[in-house]
Amino acid sequence: MAIAEEHHAKPVQPAPEPSLAGYVARFEDVPSLLAAAEKTRDAGFSRFDCYTPFPVHGIDEAMGTKPTRLPFIVLGCAAMGATTAIALQYFTNAFDYKYIISGKPFFSIPSDMPVTFELAVLFSAFGALLGMLALNNLPRLYNKMFLIDPFAKVTTDGFFLGIEEEDPKFHPEETAHFLNSLHPVSVDPCMDPHESEALPQILLPLAAFLLIVGLIPLVLVARMRAMPSNVPRIEILTDMDFQPKLKTQRLTHVFADDRGMRPEIPGTLARGDFYADISFSEGLQTGVGDEVDRTQLLPNAKNPDGTTVNLSQVPWVSEFPLTVNAELMARGQERYDIYCAVCHGLTGKGDGLVTQRAMQLQAASPSVGTWIKPISLYDGPIKSQPVGQLFNTITYGVRKMPGYASQITIEDRWAIVLYLRALQQAGSGTIDSIPAEEQQRLRAEVTPE
Ligand code: HEC
């Protein structure tokens, strides 16, 4: 018996008596609630609230609620997001990993704007949500008001005004009296049952259990990644990994030599690659096809004795191998402006934007790169080159300039050569090279009246 008593020695705290936590008055409709709120505000109460089934216009003013501080929180978060984005972009692009991309500046506010905008919006969205929750003391799963019977009507047609016991002006009798003077439907005391605020005991072990269960998939994935296994891995969707095609340097048993990559078959061409007219497809004079070794036309090609191939010795065509007309010229101008002007400049002088930028960078820090400035296309040696050679330059490139065969079709390459010829004409032209009426029109344009 004594042992059992010792067991119960820990005194059981008697639950404290429920105490008054405030009063709640119910009103018939919105106007009477608004009037009551105004009177409560004017009576000097500060810790009171209104509870309605829907948002009521003007209730903030009637209650004397101060404007929310949320906008400042959101503004702060937006500034933080924008600063983070700018700092991140500065660090990655202009500090930690400088990388020239088409001569663009490393750090430039206009091009950093999209990321900056996005991060500012993201941070403000978080700020708005979390700030709203924090300012409202949310989330809160329990409210003393729920214990008042008629309070359930707040979700349908009840309009309530509650004054809390913490209000400095609260008085157990006078406040009830005051509320009754506002012509409510009813006034109810709100009792605080003083229930323990400790979490239910099961909650912690339950949370720990769920956490451990939640970690199991991650642990399994980590184990699979780290441990070698000869069992094929589980593939849920296989069509991306296993496609019915051969990749470079893979085996196949389709061919006798087991090679997936096939060498070119001598004397054949890929579909669509055959042009009977070698002057059109290569810019070479017809009839020389078999005598010219195509590898000798590539940039930096070498003769067997080690000297660089002299491209001016190749039998290039000097006449355009296709019909030349205004349409081809217009196409050539358009293509030139797209593909060539960035480096060679709109007039072919060798002052394109990329060139200018690269020269600037190079002047600022000579170690940055070794940009070769393209020479002028409209005078000097390029002017005397046959059209076939110009065509070949676009096709395969020359020295430091890359080839454009993969981007520009054969016909467009000829169109560009035609436009180059026009640029060269214009470069050495005088006013007398253009028709008389054009001259007059131009003079009228440049001479002020
Ligand atoms: C990325 C910049 C760049 C672009 C784009 C570019 N070029 Fe060039 N080009 C160069 C450079 C650099 C050189 C000088 C190469 C050298 O001397 O090593 C050059 C040289 C040339 C030459 C002189 C070849 C010779 O025999 O000396 C011609 C002609 C030419 N380019 C035409 C074109 C045409 C036409 C286009 C448009 C399809 C074009 N380039 C696009 C950079 C460019």
Provide structural commentary.
There is one protein chain. The protein has 449 residues and is α+β, with helices and mostly antiparallel strands. It has helices at 2-7, 30-42, 59-63, 70-96, 109-135, 174-180, 203-226, 278-282, 326-339, 341-344, 353-364, 387-396, 410-428, 436-446, and strands spanning 19-27, 48-51, 159-164, 186-192, 397-398, 401-402. The chain has two domains: 17-238, no CATH class; 282-429, Cytochrome Bc1 Complex, Chain D, domain 2 (Orthogonal Bundle). The chain is built from 14 helices and six strands. A hairpin with a 2-residue loop joins strand 5 (397-398) and strand 6 (401-402). Helix 4 (70-96) packs antiparallel against helix 5 and helix 12 (387-396) packs across helix 13 (410-428). The longest helix has 27 residues, at 70-96. The protein binds heme C (HEC). Residues 339-340, 342-344, 354, 372, 374, 377, 382, 390, 393-394, 398-401, 404, 416, 420 line the site of heme C (HEC).
Give the averaged pLDDT, no decimals.
87
Helical stretch count? 14
Hetero groups in this structure are: heme C
Helix content: 40-55%
The biggest beta sheet reads: 4 strands, antiparallel
Strand order, main sheet: write it out.
2-3-1-4
What pattern of helices and strands is seen along the backbone? Answer: HEHEHHHEHEHHHHHHEEHH
How many individual domains?
A: 2
Shape assignment? elongated
Compute the number of strand runs: 6
